[in-house]
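Hi V.,

Quick status before I head out on leave. The structure for the redesign project is tokenized and pasted below; the design run finished overnight.
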């Protein structure tokens, strides 16, 4: 390798090294002795399985419950994402799945407008397109907190929301009313307010979609 090439590589890599030394992700500064102790009890396959989220439904029959239970007991999967069903049925299934799991399961849901997106007999919050029309974004923050409170009552830790896609294609049948709108700055701010509301109630938020629909 010629000297000129070496200099170019050093110049390109130097900012990365400097940034990594000065910047540290906040959650890395938190002590997690319990999580670390549990992690050390897992073998390699179980550690890999902790990365897996399996789809679960509370509106299906007992065979589905047995299938999910089998995955939990055999492979020690790390999480479940619940889709269609009902709140009481899902709560009962969540308690059951947690009771048979070696490691506490991370429970998640697609709840863009709250539990109602997936569960019957629950409160439906406004679609994001409607929220895109309001001027007071603090209302979105409050909504995020209320949704988070409902999720916690269901034993859910993660919400795959908000939709941070920009609705730049009116013919897109997937996003449409699920987006805050076509202005990227407004979409960003409203998404952050929604996320902050959930996070302040200790629910993990997940801005989507990447690479996305807009």
């Amino acid at each position: 390798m010629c000297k000129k090439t070496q200099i170019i590589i050093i110049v390109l890599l130097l900012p990365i090294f400097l940034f990594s030394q000065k910047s540290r992700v906040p959650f890395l500064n938190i002590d997690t002795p319990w999580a670390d102790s549990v992690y050390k009890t897992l073998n390699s396959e179980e550690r890999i399985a902790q990365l897996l989220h399996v789809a679960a439904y509370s509106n299906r029959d007992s065979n589905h419950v047995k299938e999910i239970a089998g995955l939990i007991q055999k492979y020690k999967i790390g999480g479940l994402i619940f889709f269609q069903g009902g709140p009481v049925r899902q709560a009962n299934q969540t308690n059951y799945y947690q009771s048979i799991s070696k490691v506490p399961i991370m429970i998640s849901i697609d709840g863009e407008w709250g539990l109602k997106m997936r569960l019957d007999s629950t409160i439906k919050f406004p679609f994001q397109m409607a929220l895109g029309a309001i001027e007071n974004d603090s209302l979105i923050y409050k909504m995020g907190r209320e949704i988070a409170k409902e999720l916690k009552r269901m034993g859910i830790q993660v919400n795959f929301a908000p939709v941070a896609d920009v609705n730049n294609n009116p013919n897109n049948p997937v996003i449409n009313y699920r987006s805050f709108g076509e202005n990227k700055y407004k979409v960003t701010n409203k998404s952050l307010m929604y996320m902050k509301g959930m996070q302040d109630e200790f629910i993990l938020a997940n801005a989507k979609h990447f690479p996305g629909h807009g």
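Above is the designed sequence. The chain has two domains: 33-109, 115-208.

G. will cover questions while I'm gone.

Best,
W.
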